[in-house]
Amino acid sequence: MNKNILVLFFTFLLLGTFSLNAGGGIGIESSSSLYQSSKVTLYPNPAVDYTRVKSLNPALQIKEIQLIDIVGNPMSRITTQGSSLVEINVSSLKKGKYFVKVDFTNGEKEITQLVKQ
């Protein structure tokens, strides 16, 4: 596994969320909750059957969403034509923590965490 990915992964676990901008820069958002993000919100979170991913900035349109399990295995991928709100069916996922990677149409990315109940 790439050393940079490991560093980002452990930073995420310790601090919450991180984002990658189109220029290659990395931003780390520290918060009191591991479920907060500066670019998207997940609700409900924890989720049972579905969750919604909503862009907090109308200028940031969601291009793709990936659900990734805690060890890095991709679980599902949703592609959109550029939307500010996407609903994801999580009913088939096992209970636990998942990463939600959001790619925006402008090239920015956001990774946050989802809890499946």
CATH architecture identity:
Sandwich
Q: CATH class, please? A: Mainly Beta
Largest sheet: 6 strands, antiparallel
Radius of gyration: 13 Å
Could you say how many structural domains there are in total?
1
CATH topology: Immunoglobulin-like
- The oligomeric state of the chains shown is single chain
- Helical amount: 10-25%
Q: Helical element count? A: 1
Overall residue-averaged pLDDT value:
82
Structure overview:
This protein has 117 residues and is mainly beta. It has one domain (3-116): Immunoglobulin-like (Sandwich). 11% of the residues lie in helices and 51% in strands. The chain has 1 helix and 9 strands. The chain has one helix at 3-15, and strands at residues 16-20, 26-30, 40-43, 50-55, 62-69, 74-83, 85-89, 96-104, 109-116. The strands form 2 sheets. A 6-stranded antiparallel sheet has the order 2-1-9-8-5-6, with helices on one face. A hairpin with a 6-residue loop joins strand 3 and strand 4. The longest helix has 13 residues, at 3-15. It is globular, with a radius of gyration of 13 Å.
